[in-house]
Amino acid sequence: MWIWVQRIAIPHQQVESATLGIPRGNLSDLYPRWLGARELLLHHRDPYGTDITREIQTGYYGRPLDSSLPNDPRDQQAFAYPLYVVFLLAPTVTMPFFLVQKIFLILLIVLTVASVLLWLRATRCNILSTSKLTWIVLAVGSFPAIQGFKLQQLTLLVAALLAGSMAAIVDRRFAFAGILLALATIKPQLVLLPVVWLALWTFANWRERQRLFWSFSISMLALAGCADIVLPGWIREFRAASADYYRYTGGGRSVLDVALTPVWGRALSVILIAVTLVFLWRKRKAAEGTPDFSWSMALVLATTIVVIPMFAPYNQLLLLPAAMLIVAVIRELWMANRIVRFLTVATAATFLWPWAAAVMLSLGVPFLAPSTIQKAWAIPLFPSLAVPVVTAALLLVGRGIFTSYRTSRAPCDRERPQSSLVSDGE
Predict the structure, then answer these.
(1) Contact assessment for residue 143 and residue 354, using Cβ atoms and an 8 Å cutoff
(2) For 311-361, what is each residue's pLDDT tens digit?
(3) Fewest C-beta atoms under 10 Å: which of 18, 268, 327, 332?
C-alpha cells in the first residue's frame, strides 16, 4: 500500500496538477490549523479572518486561490475548527513548519499504533501478542491511515482520543474518559453521535456513570471559556466559517449522498440515524465491557462515518472496533442466514480489496507502461464508498450475533492463549 501511494498515486496527482494547472503547496491539513494558532497566540490575529485565509492558501496551495481559474480547488482551506484546537497546537507555534510536520507525522504514527491497542482494550479483545502486531501492521498499512499520515490529518488524533476515551470507560475511569472525549470535539462532526450515545448510556445509570457527564461538561466549558478569553465571540465566527465551508465545498456530501443522490442520501441518513438511536436506546443499560456495549460503540462509529458530510477515506479508521468485532465472531456470522453471510462476504471484500489491488499495481510497475499504470491508479479506491455502508449494515443485521456471543466472556477471548487521498511527502 505504501508503494502504491508513493510510486503510483502521488505521481498521478503531480501529473494531473501540472496538466490542469492545479496549485500544489505543502498540502498539509495541519497547516491551516497551525498557522491560525500561531497568528492568534503570537500576533493576536483572528484566525477566522480572510487575511489569514489568504496566507493559509499561500502555504497550502503555493499561492492564493483565484476564482477566475476553472481548475483551482473550491476548498478555501480556511480555519474552520473550534478555536480551542489552538491549545493542542500551542507547543508548536514557535517552530518552523517543516519541523512541525516531521514531529506530527511521528506523533500520528505512534497514536495510530496506540489506538489499535486501545480499541482492542475497549472491545475486550484479549488476543495473542502476534495478533496484536497483525492488527497494528494492517492498520498502519491501510490507505485511510496512510492518507492521514500524508495529509497530517487531525482525524487520526481524534480517533486516538476516542479510542482512549472508550478504553477508559471500559476500565471505569469515567473522569479521564470525559476529558478525552471533550478534546476529541475538535472535530465535532465525528464526535456528535458518540456523545449522544454516551449521554443516553450515562443517564440510564446516572448514579454510577455521572462522573462521565460532569467530566465532559466541565472540560467543554473550560475549553470553550478559555477560547473565549483568547478570542471573544469565537463561537459566532466558527459557525460562520463552518457555513462558508459547506457553501464552497458544495454543501458537504456524505457517503450516501455520493453513492445515491443528495436527496436520497440525506433521507437514508436520517433513517439510519433513527434506527441506530432506537437500538442504542435499547442497549443503554448495558454495562461497560459487555458485548452489548462493544456492539453499540462499533455501530455508532460506523453510522457516523456513513452520515457525516465528508467521505474522506481517512475517517474510516474509526471502523477499527467494528472490524475487530467482525473478526472475533466471523465463524458465527458465516453460519448465520444468507443475508448475514452475504454482508460478511461483502464487508470482507471491501476491506481486503484495497490491499490486493495495491499489491497487483505495485508489482506491475516494473513491467507495465507508465500510461497503463496511471489509467489504473485508482483501482484500490473503488470500494471506498461501500466500506462504511456494508460495515454498518452487517452490524445492524447481525446484531444478535454480536450481542449474544459468549455473553459471559469478552467477544475476543477465544484467541487468548491457553497458558494468553494523499499529499507529497517522504
Answers:
(1) yes
(2) 789 999 999 999 999 999 999 999 999 999 999 999 999 999 999 999 999
(3) 18
Torsional class of 124: left (φ above 0), alpha (ψ -120 to 50), beta (otherwise): left
- Return the sign of the alpha-carbon dihedral for residues 272, 277, 282, 284: positive
Give the torsion through C-alpha atoms of 47, 161, 225, 46, to 10 deg.
Answer: 0
| DSSP code for 142 | S
pLDDT of 291: 94
Neighbours of 66 (CB within 10 A): 11
The pTM assigned to this predicted structure is 0.92
Q: With both helix axes pointing from N to C terminus, report the angle between 97-122 and 320-328 in degrees, rounded to the nearest 10.
A: 30
CA distances from 44 to 36, 92, 234, 237 (A): 10, 16, 13, 15
Residue 275 pLDDT class (50, 70, 90 cuts): very high
Q: Indicate if the alpha-carbon torsion angle 205, 186, 139, 380 is positive or negative.
A: positive
158 compared with 261, residue with greater pLDDT = 158
CB of 343 within 8 A of CB of 139?
no
CA-based radius of gyration for the chain:
22
Cβ neighbours of residue 384 closer than 8 Å, sequence gap 6 or more: 311, 313, 316
